[in-house]
């Protein structure tokens, strides 16, 4: 009886172990977070994470890294690699690249007091978004802005997500809009008899998704932060601590005494 139970349990767990999401990048430059459910010849069936919709596309429309990943997946899942696309699947081409341009302008103002060793600055970011499409509106899109800081006494390289702002985006063709983040005030100390302490600005991440959840635009400073889109989208409310790969750390480590809004 115990062997039968273990066998049944293994069949229940096996499908769960197959689920592995990935951000797929098309040759047109669009991004989509999804998991592979089947591969048939040059066609790959993906289940999109944003709405669980199943899409079947040609792997030749994806970047070479994704094509190699699909080949590896097919070799590891031979039972699914020859399966036909689900009858409910809707053939679809990758999302056409949207001509959206962003000019980001950081702003910093000095708020220091009378302490010669104390530095306090108020930081904001202005995201100037331009819809360069001639006949396509950008409606019901969403922007996500992460403002990052660095603990001056932290030698491990961990980051502080100071703010996580989401905002609506609607831009007519050949038009613009500006989003300015809420100001955050950071304090740090330099010189004197004590070691450096406090929080300094580190950078930002901006992610823009359309109404269907497809990623239209990602940018970051420093640039290396842009590749951790999946981890960033899953972060909880700020402030919080993350490592350089944006994996969440203990919230108790956030130096709140040096941060104000």
Explain how this protein is built:
The chain has about 260 residues and is mainly beta. The chain contains 4 helices and 15 strands. Strand 11 and strand 12 form a beta hairpin. It starts with a helix and ends with a strand.
Throw out a few tags for this protein:
single chain; about 260 residues; mainly beta; 10-stranded antiparallel beta sheet; 5-stranded mixed beta sheet; about 45% strand; disordered N terminus
What's the short story on this structure?
It is built from 4 helices and 15 strands.
The value of Rg in angstroms is 23 Å
Sequence stretches where pLDDT stays below 50 over 5 or more residues: 1-18
The structural class is: mainly beta
Number of helices: 4
Please give the share of residues in helix. 10-25%
String of helices and strands: HEEEEHHEEEEEEEEEHEE
Give a count of the beta strands, DSSP E runs of length 2 or more.
15
Distance between the termini: 61 Å
Which geometry do the CA atoms define?
globular
Largest sheet descriptor: 10 strands, antiparallel
Strand content: 35-45%
Average pLDDT: 83
